[in-house]
Amino acid sequence: MLHIKYAPKTLSECIANLNVVKELTAYINSNTENTVCVIFGKTGSGKTLTVNLLLRDLQVHKTEINYTEKINKTYLSEKIETTQNTILVFEDAQYYENDLYTSLNKYFKTRNSLKKIIIISDIEVPKFLNTNTIYIETKITNKKSYCKFIKNI
Is residue 152 over pLDDT 70? Predict the structure, then answer.
């Protein structure tokens, strides 16, 4: 479990994904209705870590939905509908993306909402959301620092 032991504890310790921090901060602070943010990238590129550290630094509450067998359209629709005053974060969305997008499209079809929704996926998800969508790809941009960090472990 070295990845947990040596994981950055603050955004200032992160050596990657500065573009994600900038774009995600802009999304969280925006007042745009019916907008979803999709963060995608390779396994281990820091998607979840970056989101969690940023939300903690901004002191923003989140409700995280992880992949489990109980996820279906009904469960997702209920979570989207009832979650208030928090950011909804859907982790590992590639495993339940069809049900998730059906539920999101249904939700946004019937109302205008400032609700913040972040989808984290290992793959670039199909662009079939019927709402404004911001796509942010995570990459390890500072490979030299990253390799030096890994070498020191």
Answer: no
The C-alpha atoms of residue 94 and residue 153 are separated, in whole angstroms, by 31
Taken in order 11, 13, 17, 19, the sign of the CA dihedral is positive
Residues 6 or more apart whose CB falls under 8 angstroms from that of 122 comprise: 40, 41, 42, 43, 47, 92, 94
Rounded to whole angstroms, the Cα distance separating 131 from 11 reads: 30
Beta bridge partner(s), residue 35 = 132
pLDDT in tens, 46-84: 888 888 888 988 888 898 998 876 788 888 988 888 888
Instruction: Compute the distance between CA of residue 40 and CA of residue 48 in angstroms, rounded to an integer.
Output: 10
- What's the start-to-end Cα distance of the chain, in Å? 12
Per-residue pLDDT at 153: 46
Within 8 A by CB and 6+ apart from 59, the residues are none
* Sign of the dihedral defined by the CA atoms of residues 68, 1, 19, 124, in that order: negative
The amino acid sitting at 111 is R
